[in-house]
Amino acid sequence: MRILPVIALLAGVGLSGGLAWGFLKPDRPAPFSSVIPARAEFQFEPPAPGSYRLNHIKPAPDGRVLDTDGHAQTLADLTKGKITLVSFVYLMCGDVNGCPLAMSTLFELHDASAQLPGLNRDVQLMTISFDPERDTVEAIHAFAYPILSDTAARDKFGWHVLTTGGMADLQPILDGYGQVIDRSTDQDQISHLLRLYLVDRSGQIRNVYGLGTIDPRLLMTDIETLLMEERQP
Amino acid sequence: MNRREFGTLTAAALAVGGPFKAFADETCQSPYMPKITGQEEFVYVWTLGVEGMGDEQDKLVTIDLRPGSDTRGQVINSLSVGGRNEAHHGGFSADRRYFWTGGLDTNRIFIFDVHSDPANPTLHKTIDTFVKDSGGVVGPHTFFALPGSMMISGLSNDADHGGRTALVEYNDSGDYVATYWMPTQDDMQGAAAIGDAVADGYGYDIRALIRKNVMLTSSFTGWSNYMMDFGQMLQDTEAMKRFGNTVVQWDLHTRQPKKVFNVPGAPLEIRFPWGPNANWAYTTTALTSQLWLIYEDEDGEWQAKAVADIGDPASIPLPVDISIAADDQTLWINSFMDGKTRLFDISDPHNPHQIYEKVIDRQVNMVSQSWDGKRVYFSSSLLANWDKKGADDVQYLRAYNWDGTELVEDFNIDFYALNLGRAHIMRFGSAALYTS
Q1: CATH number of residue B189's parent domain
Q2: What domain range is B368 assigned to?
Q3: Total domain count, chain B
Q4: A46 interaction partners in chain B (CB closer than 8 Å)
Q5: In order along chain A (233 residues), what is the average pLDDT of each group of 10 residues?
Q6: Which residues pair with B271 in a beta bridge?
Q7: Quick one: A184 exposed, middle or buried, by C-beta within 10 A (0-12, 13-18, 19+)?
Q8: Do A47 and B253 touch (CB under 8 A)?
Q9: Residue A190 confidence (pLDDT)
Q10: Domain A8-231 CATH class label
Q11: A97/B16 Cβ within 8 A
Q12: Contact A191 B18 (CB under 8 A)
């Protein structure tokens, strides 16, 4: 199995995320969102991390997925013990307000995470294709090349690039998250609403983001809020 | 936003294509949901059952709006939900596949599937536990879609059935998530009272300006008033004191109240504009008949001020529903008592002025317009016990064409003649939203 970046060693030493974060407490910029520049389309300052509560919206679903090496995995295993930002994308997507926007947001978080030492022990990214017929293992492996070949990946969030064996595996995952898709009649485009899901270590969806709210600073603030919540008795 | 900016915005919306990609609205919906920017194909009318009429039950009525259809302008489906609940408002989920509607008396929430067969909605789920789930909130009113969840404003509570209430959030599956009580003078929850505002804890509508992270709520009255006979209430001095006088500004992301504005006289519907640089909203006050502007000032602080009268406030025309044009240039304002709709020029939101008026009928409540503003629809019922009596109690859905100078009637459906009941909120549907 290839984990992006390679963090298996850290995970294997038995430091559960919250304990690791609280115990090690590396020096990091505060708040975390300060490492991300503001975008013009988000005309507000993120709230102070920990100044609010994130709801328990619903449990994230489990399901069978395939990684970039074609190994079968379960979502529960991949997300267990980590805070995970999950998004559904497909490689042929040409909607500027769809997958490209989701990916640019995730890449911005990915790059910014290099400035937050050790945070990748607690946080990871995940993209799941909702076009399993065209987004084969080979296709997502090629797509993931910039992430796989990133020489700085060790310092950044891990990133699971996933597909599924087909709609029979995918549909329950989509239904569980509430990600709606519609195939157009020419089958080339898959209409969908842009969504990002914040899943906590215990597998609960704690926030859902759509077009207009996927401010990377806001996502990072929510991540920091979850970590602060874990430190509370 | 001027007309040129609007044209650019529309072209951009249409250029990306696909049913989920248009980001504009048929003007008054949650900005998170896909919009019908072309021809609306159906209008769903959440209708109050009337004792002794038809099956006497609340129902979702579907009317065909498809050009060229043999049944255009006719009722093509009526789905009764069992009993009467004081059917009132409703809103689509953010994916626009489900239409959530509420009953102000029974507190039941009915979720209709409108995507599997948009011409023939089905009842998908009923929530019977709203009061228990929420910790005592009564009167589910506005249904405002958020990504992955539905924010519902209450009107009342089960302790005293007065106006103190809360916002209640459910996930898209219809499971309870959280309750956010309105700030009160005794528990401001960190909010600041602006000027002489007194936080009353009342609720009514919800709207949000996402890019500013601002959510606004307005304030009406509690169960003890909205279920009382209207004439009796007007004579009840104490009852008339139990109306909301506030608009609350919230942090949309954290769901925390920030400011409480003094907006006296029961501010009802809230509408934000669509322009990329328009940082304001309108609301109207039912009892004082004023148009209020909630706006961001030059220092980035949100403020509230009255900017126009609606008709003659002394005659209490009772402004009810409003509808903003997609280009932010005009605003329809209905007033229940005189049965009028008025069109205001809002090109300068600080200085709106009336440019047109027309009597729709002896009473009028809701107004909805198409994205291009060329088709305007009106319905009649306010509340079962507040609607007019006898011959003045007309119940209808009426469609008009707006040519820029005059409303010209297209068709009129008499809900009493068809034994349907009282026509309340209208929402548009279209099979083109769902391509699977």
Answers
A1: 2.130.10.10
A2: 3-433
A3: 1
A4: 253
A5: 35 38 67 95 95 98 98 97 95 79 94 96 96 94 92 94 97 95 69 91 96 93 98 86
A6: B282
A7: middle
A8: yes
A9: 77
A10: alpha beta
A11: yes
A12: yes
